[in-house]
Amino acid sequence: MKFLRLKMLSLMSIMAFLTACDPQGPQSADDYDIVITNVSPEADFENRKTFGMPWKVTHVGDTTENELTEMDLVILNTVKEEMLNKNWEFIEEGASEQPDVVALCYSVTKTTVYTWWNWWGGYPGWGWGPGWGYPWYPYPIQGVSAYQKGTITVELADNTPTQLPATLSENDSVAIPILWEGLTNGFTTNDKDEQRRAEKNIRQMFEQSPYLDK
Amino acid sequence: MKKIFSILVTLVVISSGSVLAQENIFSLTYSMSAPAGNTAGFTGDASFRGGNFDYRHFINPNMSVGFSVGYHRFYENKGFTTQPLGDGHISGNNYSYINEIPLMLTYHYYFGLEGGVRPYVGGGIGAAHYEYTDQIGSLAWVDKQWHFNIAPEVGVLVPIGHSTYFTSNVKYNYAAEANGLPSQQYWSLNIGFAFDL
What we know:
The complex is a heterodimer. Chain A is built from 3 helices and 7 strands. Chain A is α/β, with parallel strands linked by helices. In chain A, strands 1, 2, 3, 4, 5, 6 and 7 form a 7-stranded mixed β-sheet that branches. In chain A, helix 2 (about 70-85) runs parallel beside helix 3 (about 190-205). Chain B has a single domain (about 25-195), classed as Porin. An 8-stranded antiparallel beta barrel of chain B has the order 1-2-3-4-5-6-7-8. Chain B is mainly beta. The interface of A and B includes residues 7 and 8 of A. Strand 1 (about 35-40) of chain A pairs antiparallel with strand 4 (about 90-110) of chain B, so a sheet runs across the interface.
């Protein structure tokens, strides 16, 4: 019986060794990256040719930080470059002409779960008038009820007047003029390597959205 | 006279087979598998993670009944993919996995003489638990399902020492469609050792 146990143990060790020699699944941080894009089925990009961008990334979960970080600049520059690469015309803030769409960027900096209406706060209605601007900024994140820390979101919103009600509940259905959104996650330290991955993944958002081409 | 003695000894040994016979054996085998059909569609790569434990009780010198428990893991790295998701798309490195645990009752018929090399045919019938995972980056979709399972096989037992055998077999594993999940198929080559109990 003693020998039997020894034989069994030897065999099981050999099998464990054989199965361990075959690494599987993600091996590096890049392998965990995801890029998700959503487009409104009603979105009509044919007749929209210009875009504007508030030069800011909203830090969801931390409103005290107002200075642009290195990661913020990577996000903003990459989004702008990609829109230009797709032959959208950029309209500077303050110009007399109003853009057809606005590109909005967010990064989730806390692990707390937020529901989308949390970021509705402070919305004063759409800003119109000579010399357009972003009095309504920040625009609400829509679509999902919780974001992981380290998520970067880019949205293209239709630049049409929308007055949102002051009080909303989670179940309210409100027409939010967001035409397209892209999400990627896994950015918690914002170091150089994460900046490289963020840039790569933001470019992928546009790569997998050929309907944005002009 | 010597010849007659040899024949007598041989006859005695053969007739005493019931005393020296294999009665209960168990085996541990390492399993390599090649997916087929729908399994190959989900995880196309050959599997080198698997094993089986078999117990067999001989009801006569040529037949055994028993049970078999196993584990097989199939995996494929599909690389960077972009797939439709809702009103948009999702991109990332795509990995698919199947973890399968078959639990079967078995029957085997053996050729050859006890104590010698014994080819056999047989098979198992029972259930198999499949866990399907489709992973993109940090997201994964998981389905779990029990399937009705059959596994015909051919193999051989080769004595290599006192109460020890080398054993090898080839099985075709078929799991029937269940709860909307399609049938699964794979071939496995199992190599290991068996022992008298």
